[in-house]
Amino acid sequence: MNAPVSAIEQLLLELPDLDWITDESRVTRLSSDFSWFSPVLVRQLKDKRADVVVRPRTEEEIRAVVGACARRGVPITIRGSGTGNYGQTTPLAGGVVLDMTGYNSCLWVRPGVARAQAGIRLGELEKQTRPTGQEMRCVPSTYRSATLGGLFGGGFGGVGSINYGPLGAPGNVIGIRAMSIEAEPQVVELRGAEAMRMHHLWGTNGLVLELEIALAPAHPWLETLVTFDDFERALHFADKLAHAPGIVKRGVSFFAAPISDHLAQLAAHLPKGCHTVLSLVAESSEPALLQLVEAHGGSVGYRKTAAEVQKSNRTLMEFTWNHTTLHALKIDPTLTYLQSGFVPGRHVEQVIEMEKLLGANGEVMMHLEFIRNVAGLMTCSGLQLVRFSTEERLQEIMRIHREHNVHINNPHVNIVEDGKAGGPLPPEVIAVKKRFDPMGLLNPGKLRDWPVKGAGGA
């Protein structure tokens, strides 16, 4: 008697012309992201992987995969380049990883806005916008490999957020084109606030095909590292630079000692034990920048013009946001990190307070990215480095932050509601989930109120 054909085998038989990946090692690699930044997630996700990966290149191929999976109850986990940090692309129930990187065209660029397919890499999208004198408003440090859909599904802010706020701020994403997960998939255009009901939900409530995003004027950016021997002077300089209305800027980052000692590729420019402020300002703003440096007693240890950056193909952007964590982990793999938010207007005071509480012994190292919040107020987001000891101590460190009114977006959880969402999802987001994923097949297990189902509905 012939053995029964599994749901996964049926998919491969039904759609033989698609780019299926079945090699076990490649499937394992494509079932993971940078969740290894967290020792907690390493433990939780170590045995989780997809059954198969598929890399469609057209909307018709995507539709065929989605319809075939829906008819068989096979879970789908949507993936970009896997540069996220929460295990978003790690299936908890097997099934199919839908790798969107082959669906990657820039559709058009117009004054102030561009539209592209979800799988396009952000660096490639900016290559299309820069000839028009425009750039993305917000790009993560992983812009060379991260995809537009991945940024929307799992990203928060990035370089440029000092001007335009996080990606979720109104006006940054204008619209999306999304596909429902059904036997007969439906494609719908969502605009404005309705589109944002799929943002930062790890691909759990709809498959985004295209995004229309707002652009910013491009400038030739001067990249600098300014060093200090005093924590508070460095912090006040970073805050004054972030607030300076006449200085055109794209990013301001603050690294308390000993973080700079973990940035090996920049060691020649960073005295041991220094506090460092990294900045990207328009070249025309350099005189004003230098005035601030002098007023705060800093020293410029690194300076590269836009032309020099382009020639070297090395940018300080790749030392900001969670790239800082990546560089530090290469030096000390026992480190992990936090994600925190400070109260606008009190952020400097709070940072100093937390440094005194947790930074004195080097257990928590202060890394800040200056950003406008959704209300337009300047503040900073923390991506503090933590010397990991136990999960219990990590929870205690997060509790101490919360007790001092510092918001924590827990990066050591694999449930949407426990992380950035910070609680139950609002009714309008749940309504989108029911509309676009009525069978609960998208990334099952990542939303608390939807049960995990294995391939075939088991």
Average pLDDT, to the nearest integer? 95
The parts where pLDDT drops under 50 for at least 5 residues are: 454-458
Q: What strand line-up does the widest sheet have?
A: 14-11-13-12-18-19-16-21
Main beta-sheet annotation: 8 strands, antiparallel
Fraction of residues in helix:
25-40%
What share of residues are in beta strands?
15-25%
Helical run tally: 15
Q: Work out the number of β strands.
A: 21
Rounded to the nearest angstrom, the distance between the terminal CA atoms is: 24 Å
Shape: globular
Radius of gyration: 22 Å
Assign the structural class, choosing from mainly alpha, mainly beta, alpha/beta, alpha+beta, or little secondary structure. alpha+beta
What is the strand and helix layout of this fold?
Layout: H1 7-14, E1 20-21, H2 24-29, H3 39-45, E2 52-54, H4 59-72, E3 76-79, E4 96-99, E5 106-110, E6 113-117, H5 122-129, E7 134-136, H6 148-154, H7 161-164, E8 173-179, E9 187-191, H8 192-195, E10 207-217, E11 221-228, H9 231-243, E12 249-255, E13 275-282, H10 286-296, E14 299-304, H11 306-312, H12 321-331, E15 335-337, E16 340-341, H13 347-359, E17 364-365, E18 367-372, E19 378-382, E20 385-387, H14 391-403, E21 407-408, H15 427-436
Parallel strand pairs: 2-4, 3-4
Antiparallel strand pairs: 1-2, 5-6, 6-10, 7-10, 8-9, 8-10, 11-13, 11-14, 12-13, 12-18, 15-20, 16-19, 16-21, 17-20, 18-19
